[in-house]
Amino acid sequence: MKQYLFVVILTATITLVLAWAVWQLSMRYKLYPGIRERDVHKTPTPRLGGVAMYLGIVAAFLASSQHPFFSIFWADPAAVWAILGATTLIVLVGVADDIWDLDWMIKLGAQFAAAGIIAWFGKLQILSLPIGGLTVGSSWMSFVLTVLSIVIVMNAVNFIDGLDGLVAGVALIANGVFFAYSYLLVRDAGATTYFNLASFIAAALIGACIGFLPLNWTPAKLFMGDSGALMLGLLMAVSAIAITGQITPSQLDPDNFGRSQLLGAFIPILLPITIVLLPLLDFGLAIIRRVGAGKSPFSPDRKHLHHRMLDMGHSDRTAVLIFYAWTAIIGLAMLLMYIGTASDWPGEYLLGVGFGVIGAIACLVVTLMPPGPRPAPVTTAQEAS
Predict the structure, then answer these.
(1) Per-residue model confidence as pLDDT tens digits over 350-381
(2) Sorting pLDDT into bands at 50, 70 and 90, what band is 261?
(3) How far apart are CA 112 and CA 148, in angstroms?
(4) Rounded Cα–Cα distance for residues 382 and 179 (Å)
(5) Which of 342, 118, 330 is nearest to 240 (CA)?
(6) What residue intervals traverse the membrane (predicted)?
(7) Angle formed by the axes of helices 49-64 and 78-100, to 10°?
(8) CA-to-CA distance for 368 and 309, rounded, in angstroms?
(9) Which pLDDT tens digit goes with each residue over 86-144?
(10) Model confidence at 6: pLDDT above 70
(11) Could you tell me if 280 and 152 are in contact, meaning their C-beta atoms sit under 8 angstroms apart?
(12) I want to staple 224 with a disulfide (CB 3.0 to 4.6 A). Which of 49, 103, 110, 338 is the partner?
């Protein structure tokens, strides 16, 4: 665990220093776009914070190559280099979009290319679903399912990037939960070491978000832009595939694993989904809304979930905190349920169910009962996707 803590601290420190440098350079050379009609913020703000997060994560990967505890995923480095290559591609395209506002077809093509690099060259594919011994039928089905999953999560995370600190905080909470899950899942699967690529990626993402939040918290001095949001989505999807999609169903067989036959068999596939449930929900609603209106599914608008919360009367900061609460409650509830089913101890399982139900009710009340009309905006807020 000390090694993972080192990854978090290293990534956070480098990201913070570089984010400050990017902000200073962007302000000096006016590297920021004008205000768009759909934007919430009122002051031109640099959007290149994703570059600092990317460099912090790359530094963590390079440091891990010199650390014997992480040699397990450097023994066959193809997957690591594919991840770094795909991440570099998506960051470059994101930076170009943040500066020149690229056509959505170009961005989507780059997303499919990045996902393809990981699935084809990195050999990181969804080979099985730990649900009753279900395996993917063919290599091509694995490839297609993997690519689609990565692209969907990338866009889902990018779509909620609309308020100060929203994506960075949601990703921080989600990856914290996923780190605990992946660490415990490897242990419960009988691995000889707890060091694995999925937990490492989650730790690096935690560090990047911690390092970036001080400059992104309201009023934000720096936005992560598409380069940061797409990168977060890419790596979150990859970390889930690197562990859940690679474990064979026999390793998690209820007779050997001691889990509940009912919901326990579904938790290893449900938990990676639930930690990005809000972004996926916003993404799905946006696609339905735009296609139903005869528009491109990637045409921007001002009807995302965070926009609706602002229109209901929530302040920018309150809306962000509510998103944090929803993410934490859903993720922690599933994690507690997993711990309970994995240890065959119903206490944690029932605690997870109760925590999720009570927490969801509380969040629903707070979400639907804003304090009053929204005051005139006085702080900088993140751009809408």
Answers:
(1) 787 888 999 999 999 999 887 755 555 444 44
(2) very low
(3) 8
(4) 27
(5) 118
(6) 6-27, 48-66, 78-96, 108-128, 140-159, 166-185, 197-217, 229-247, 267-288, 318-337, 349-369
(7) 170
(8) 9
(9) 999 999 999 999 888 899 899 999 999 999 999 999 888 887 665 544 556 568 888 99
(10) yes
(11) yes
(12) 49
Residues 369, 370, 376, CA angle at the centre, nearest 5°?
160
> In DSSP terms, which residues pair with 134 in a beta bridge?
129
* C-alpha to C-alpha distance for 116 and 143, rounded to whole angstroms: 8
Residue 262 CB coordination number (10 Å) = 9
Tell me the C-alpha distance between 155 and 298, whole Å.
9
**Whole-number Å distance between alpha carbons of 240 and 174:** 12
53 backbone dihedrals φ, ψ, rounded to 5°: -65, -40
Instruction: Read off the pLDDT band of 35 (50, 70, 90).
Output: low
pLDDT of residue 295: 86
Cis preceding-peptide flag for 219 (omega within 30 of 0): yes
H/E run at residue 176? helix 166-188
Q: Is the model's pTM score more than 0.85?
A: yes
DSSP 76: S
Contact between 196 and 242 under an 8 Å Cβ cutoff? The reply is: yes
What number of CA atoms fall less than 13 Å from residue 27's CA on the CB side?
10
H helix intervals, 65-103:
71-74, 78-100
Quote the DSSP letter at residue 247: S
How would residue 277 be classed by pLDDT, with cut points 50, 70 and 90? confident
80, 74 Cβ separation under 8 angstroms: yes
Write the CB contacts of 264 (distance below 8 Å, at least 6 apart in sequence). 254, 337, 338, 341, 342, 349
What is the C-alpha separation between 300 and 297, in angstroms, rounded?
8
